[in-house]
């Protein structure tokens, strides 16, 4: 097959490209330039998309022996990822920009261009397993659960997955690094990226403040309705947050307080005790089913509610066009804007059934 390898400059995408080439595919490497102003990208290895990453990707392509290009996706990235990120926080939700980048950039913009240029598939270094039989994709967790990225891929449609390749899902991250070293790839020991790539200094609250401006508001105790503090912008908070609340005095019970809810219209942050964060029902909208067919509901499954969250047993059903997960045990700190990803556990590894976007649910009830 004619394959386009998306090369970020990290070890995972380099090894994925090498695997594709060694499997006999006609591989071309491409690095995505995502910053309008490259000088705003951080240097060093704190996050992805640094200036050094393009050079690392090019060097890896040279070692593998494949053609290499840089595609300018800065405007599309700004519109579909950065502006969405800012708008979601302004609306009181907590977005996942990596998930949005996969959905809008890597498996829409890049895949569309690749297909138009005659490529059959896009290969990436995501840690997930993917197989397609008779045009029906099956997306599974990686064998390395700690590095599994099926959560941020679950937003992809069946058509997108039919033209995707994830060669690393069957090996661990340690094995990926060893494979890179065996091939003489200089990125073998390069640290993983963790931070949001477009927040150059790692200060997400400061980034949002510059984008949205300061807007003071009240911090309110959800139980009493009493104003207990002020903030400079509700967008700087997320459900479940404990630090940085700037509460003027300790709670009457002496226990820590957490963000329970963010009300963007009134610019109010509601806080309360930890147990008020517990929910047993999660509602989500805009579902995407991995194999392109809506499952027969209700189903017993496991759900994951954030990128690094633990799987939770649940009964999943539909209520109109909403996906409803009724959890066997309470989940704490569920944030609107994150993805609800539904997995079917089986002997061969958890299968992704689909995903949906967690909705704003009102302020949690206090116990």
Automatic annotation (TrEMBL):
Q: What reactions does this protein catalyze? A: S-sulfanyl-L-cysteinyl-[protein] + uridine(34) in tRNA + AH2 + ATP = 2-thiouridine(34) in tRNA + L-cysteinyl-[protein] + A + AMP + diphosphate + H(+)
In this protein, which residues make up the domain named tRNA-specific 2-thiouridylase MnmA-like C-terminal? 280-358
Please state every residue range assigned to the domain named tRNA-specific 2-thiouridylase MnmA-like central.
207-272
Family annotation (NCBIfam families): PRK00143.1 (NF001138), trmU (TIGR00420)
CDD domains in UniProt: MnmA_TRMU-like
Superkingdom is Bacteria
In the UniProt entry, which residues are flagged as the active site? 101, 197
Q: Name its species.
A: Fodinicola feengrottensis
Region Interaction with tRNA: list its residue ranges: 147-149
- Localisation per UniProt entry: Cytoplasm
**Alphabetical keyword list:** ATP-binding, Cytoplasm, Disulfide bond, Nucleotide-binding, RNA-binding, Transferase, tRNA processing, tRNA-binding
Q: Please explain the role this protein plays, according to its UniProt record.
A: Catalyzes the 2-thiolation of uridine at the wobble position (U34) of tRNA, leading to the formation of s(2)U34.
Main subcellular localisation: cytoplasm
Q: Which Gene3D superfamilies does the annotation name?
A: Adenine nucleotide alpha hydrolases-like domains (2.30.30.280), HUPs (3.40.50.620), Translation factors (2.40.30.10)
Read off the InterPro entries from this record: MnmA-like (IPR004506), MnmA-like_C (IPR046885), MnmA-like_central (IPR046884), MnmA-like_central_sf (IPR023382), Rossmann-like_a/b/a_fold (IPR014729)
Q: Name one Pfam family in it.
A: tRNA_Me_trans
Tell me which residues bind ATP.
Answer: 6-13, 32, 125
Q: Where is this site: Interaction with tRNA?
A: 126, 338
Q: Top-level EC class, please?
A: transferase
EC number(s) stated in the UniProt entry for this protein: 2.8.1.13
Q: Could you tell me what this protein is called?
A: tRNA-specific 2-thiouridylase MnmA
The UniProt family comment states: Belongs to the MnmA/TRMU family.
